[in-house]
Design goal:
Elements lengths: L1 H6 L4 H13 L3 H8 L30 E5 L4 H7 L3 H5 L4 E6 L4 H4 L7 E4 L9 E4 L3 H4 L18 H11 L6 E5 L16 H4 L8 E4 L6 H8 L13 H9 L3 E5 L2 H8 L4 E4 L14
Parallel strand pairs: 1-2, 1-4, 2-3, 5-6, 5-7, 7-8
Helix pairs in contact: 2-3, 4-12, 8-11
Length: 286
């Protein structure tokens, strides 16, 4: 990548791919800088919103200012990086966060956020803005300073009680399962499994609960014949999924939004990763 960049300094693809390598290796200082090239990489289809207000990257004082933090990429990315809101709030700012409608019930009351706005709705006045995945650059995040080792999301207690009743009496440890994600994901073939590839590895000494709402046609018959509890449309939003996660002894998931949700809730979470994982999982980790 360095050779390509030396020949063509504005080669966004080389900068972008270099950033993924650096981040996967835990070399965050340079990785976050190069990650900003995502806005110039035409193949990614990412465009930095054309606000008249300046982007904040940690330089200007936010004391007494209002900043808009806005989602980008997938739902899991928003769940993973919304933890930075309380760090922004600690800078003395009023924090407005714009998020997809599917996450509004879940993120109500998120620490550090003064106002939640649903995507594509009218925005209040603000002085600065920052995409969520640029916040690690703004705060110069290193491996040793990744924020929120403690849970930073909370489930709705009333919903937890509703799901406890729905699940019925507990007789075995409960395992929440997610074996496939959205088919719209560009690398879905690297992360999703067929249920019949997984089901033979599920011992009888546990109860299993499906935490994904969408079931692919290829998995429907296998699921129907299995011991896995499935609730489908009863999972109305991520607040329901969060409540169900709270009742699991462990969540086992492929690299999708539920893995981030379960981790953010502080639940024991095992993530099934491909041999070459997404950068955020780093390498040679447990």
């Amino acid at each position: 990548y360095d050779k390509a960049i030396s020949l063509k300094p504005d080669y966004a693809g080389a900068h972008w791919n270099k950033s993924l390598e650096l981040l996967a290796l835990g070399q965050f200082k340079e990785g976050w800088k190069s990650y900003e090239w995502r806005w110039k990489h035409e193949d990614l289809g990412s465009k930095l919103p054309n606000f008249s207000q300046p982007q904040w990257l940690g330089v200007e004082s936010l004391q007494g200012q209002t900043i808009l933090l806005h989602s980008e990429q997938g739902l899991g990315d928003t769940i993973q990086f919304c933890r930075y809101a309380k760090l922004v709030k600690a800078q003395g700012a009023r924090v407005v966060m714009e998020i997809p409608a599917a996450l509004v019930p879940l993120l109500q009351g998120l620490e550090g956020v003064d106002e939640l706005v649903q995507s594509r709705q009218a925005l209040p006045a603000f002085d600065y803005h920052c995409p969520l995945l640029s916040l690690p650059l703004a705060f110069k995040t290193e491996l040793s300073t990744i924020p929120s080792p403690e849970p930073y999301l909370r489930s709705d207690k009333a919903k937890v009680n509703q799901w406890r009743i729905k699940l019925g009496p507990k007789s075995k440890p409960r395992v929440g399962l997610v074996w496939s994600g959205s088919t719209q994901h560009k690398k879905d073939h690297n992360r999703s499994l067929r249920l019949d590839e997984l089901i033979h590895y599920l011992p009888n000494s546990f109860d299993y609960v499906c935490l994904q709402k969408e079931i692919r046609a290829v998995d429907q018959e296998t699921l129907k014949q299995s011991r896995i509890q499935y609730f489908g449309d009863e999972l109305k939003d991520f607040a329901d999924t969060a409540a169900l996660c709270e009742l699991m002894d462990v969540v086992i998931s492929v690299d999708t939004s539920v893995a981030h949700l379960s981790g953010a809730l502080g639940r024991p979470t095992w993530v099934l990763l491909p041999y070459v994982p997404d950068w955020r999982w780093l390498l040679d980790r447990e």
